[in-house]
Amino acid sequence: MTALESSIASIRIAAAAADRMKAHDIVAYDVSDALGICDGMLIASAPNERQVLAIAEEVEKDLFLNDGKRQPRSREGVQEAQWILLDYGDFIVHIMHDEARDFYHLERLWRDCPQIELPLEHPEEPQSTER
């Protein structure tokens, strides 16, 4: 089983919004085989709480405007803006403060899952997934 094309398209919209707002280390995984409850996970980072919140707001705005008025089923972590989780049902967006991302190291959970190609406007140099 692989992620649905509609989920991948939505993840790419979210990734482009995060990239436009200067998120870094943007990566997405097809977790459909590993989890079964969703198709994908998108992870992005920012160096401060204000930027984490701005990225989350831009992701929500773009998915609403460019993906059939899609809204998250739930939003968590908005008050603290250390780790904002946007649950869209078929995919989940994690926008994390750099320190939280280093501490929780989510990539280790999904490193065996295939990465979803993200054609970003501001691509970074490839980095090891072993943060």
Overview of this structure, please?
- The longest helix is centred in the middle third of the chain and has 18 residues, at 49-66.
- It is globular and about 35 Å long.
- The protein starts with a helix and ends in a 21-residue tail after the last helix.
- Residues 126-131 have low confidence and may be disordered.
- With 131 residues, it is an alpha+beta fold.
- It has 4 helices and 5 strands.
- Helix 1 packs across helix 2 (49-66).
- The chain has helices at 5-20, 49-66, 98-104, 107-110; strands at residues 24-30, 40-46, 74-76, 83-87, 91-97.
- The chain has one domain: 2-Layer Sandwich (Beta Polymerase, domain 2), CATH 3.30.460.
- The protein has a 5-stranded mixed β-sheet with strand order 1-2-5-4-3.
- This is Ribosomal silencing factor RsfS.
- Belongs to the Iojap/RsfS family.
| DSSP strand count | 5
Low-confidence stretches: 126-131
Number of helices: 4
Say which CATH homologous superfamily is assigned.
Beta Polymerase, domain 2
Total number of domains:
1
Strand order of the largest sheet: 1-2-5-4-3
CATH topology: Beta Polymerase, domain 2
- SSE run: HEEHEEEHH
Helical content, roughly?
25-40%
CATH architecture: 2-Layer Sandwich
CATH class placement? Alpha Beta
The largest pleated sheet is described as: 5 strands, mixed
First-last Cα distance? 28 Å
User: Over the alpha carbons, how many angstroms does the gyration radius reach?
Assistant: 13 Å
